[in-house]
Amino acid sequence: MSTLIWIAVALVVIAVYLSWTAGRLDRLHSRLDAARAALDAQLLRRASVAQELATAGVLDPAASIVLYQAAHAARQSEEEHREVAESELSQALRAVFEDSAQAEAVREAPGGEETLGSSRRR
Predict the structure, then answer these.
(1) Nearest CA among 70, 77, 115, 75 for reference residue 95
(2) What's the Cα-to-Cα distance from 119 to each of 4, 10, 55, 56, 94, rounded to whole Å?
(3) What confidence tens digit (pLDDT) does each residue in 6-31 have?
(4) pTM summary value
(5) What DSSP string runs through 51-92?
(6) What are residue 48's phi and psi, to 5 degrees?
(7) Where is region (Disordered) located (predicted)?
C-alpha cells in the first residue's frame, strides 16, 4: 500500500511540474508574440517615415530613390523576410545620411528634426 501512495505522490508532483512548465511556456509564447508585433509595428513606422521623407523632395533624387525602394520593400516584406528588410532599410538610411548635407537639408525642412530623429532610430 505504501508503494502505491509513493507512486501517486510522484505522479502528482510530475503533473504539477508539467503544468507549471506549460504555463511558463505559454507566457513566454505570449511575450514572444507581443515582441514580434511591436517590432513589426516599429518597422512599418520607420518605413512610412522613410517613404514620406523620400517623396518630400528634400533629398537629392538618387538618395530619394534608394530610400524609397528600401522603405517600400520593408513595408511589402513578408513576415519571414522582415529581418532582412529591416536591415536593408537601416543600411539605406545610413547610406543616405552619411552625407551631412542630406541630414542638414532634412533638418531645415518644416518638421525635419522630428522626422530625422524618428527615421534614424536603430
Answers:
(1) 70
(2) 66, 57, 14, 14, 10
(3) 999 999 999 999 999 999 999 999 99
(4) 0.70
(5) HHHHHTT-S-HHHHHHHHHHHHHHHH--GGGHHHHHHHHHHH
(6) -65, -45
(7) 101-122
